[in-house]
Design brief:
Helix 1 packs across helix 2. The protein has one domain: 2-Layer Sandwich (Beta-Lactamase), CATH 3.30.450.20. Strands 1, 2, 3, 4, 5 and 6 form a 6-stranded antiparallel sheet that branches. Helix content is about 40%, strand content about 25%. The protein is built from 3 helices and 6 strands, in the order H-H-E-E-E-H-E-E-E. With about 150 residues, it is α+β, with helices and mostly antiparallel strands.
């Protein structure tokens, strides 16, 4: 088999993972946009009730909404409510990265963006690369929706 054929086969083999990751990224963006609109419509307290409700559509398996204030205090975590009210400014990932500070920087820039870090996957219980889409909801809050990028 020629090298170009092998390269084409390798690309096709990798295609499902690439498409799955792009679909996950699109889901994260859409969910963050929906969450920001909900905060702007109802206010953060009422919106957080929706984010924690498994029937409201803000929790989609490993993909869910997180809201922090601009001081990196957890306002609402859709799947781990015991984190609500906790200061996350000094939170580090497994590699020592202060990823919540990076999230705040993205939000404060006024432009949505992605922050990469390593975090335990709640399904596999294994540390995996994760990427969070971050948006500023208003002057006080930021929304993030993370996806695991290991496919």
């Amino acid at each position: 088999m020629k090298l170009t054929q092998l390269a084409a086969i390798a690309m096709l083999a990798a295609a499902p993972a690439v498409y799955a990751q792009e679909a996950d990224r699109a889901t994260a963006i859409a969910l963050a946009d929906k969450a920001v609109a909900n905060i702007q419509k109802k206010g953060v307290e009422e919106a957080c009730k929706d984010f924690a409700d498994p029937k409201a559509g803000y929790i989609q398996g490993e993909v869910y909404v997180v809201v922090q204030d601009m001081q990196c205090k957890m306002v609402c975590h859709a799947t781990i409510p015991r984190m609500n009210g906790k200061d996350m400014i000094e939170l580090k990932d497994a590699n020592g990265k202060y990823f919540t500070k990076d999230m705040r920087s993205v939000a404060q820039s006024g432009k949505p963006g992605w922050v990469d870090y390593v975090w335990p996957n709640p399904t596999s219980k294994v540390l995996e690369p994760k990427s969070a889409y971050v948006r500023k909801a208003d002057d006080k809050y930021m929304v993030s929706v993370g996806i695991y990028t290991k496919k």
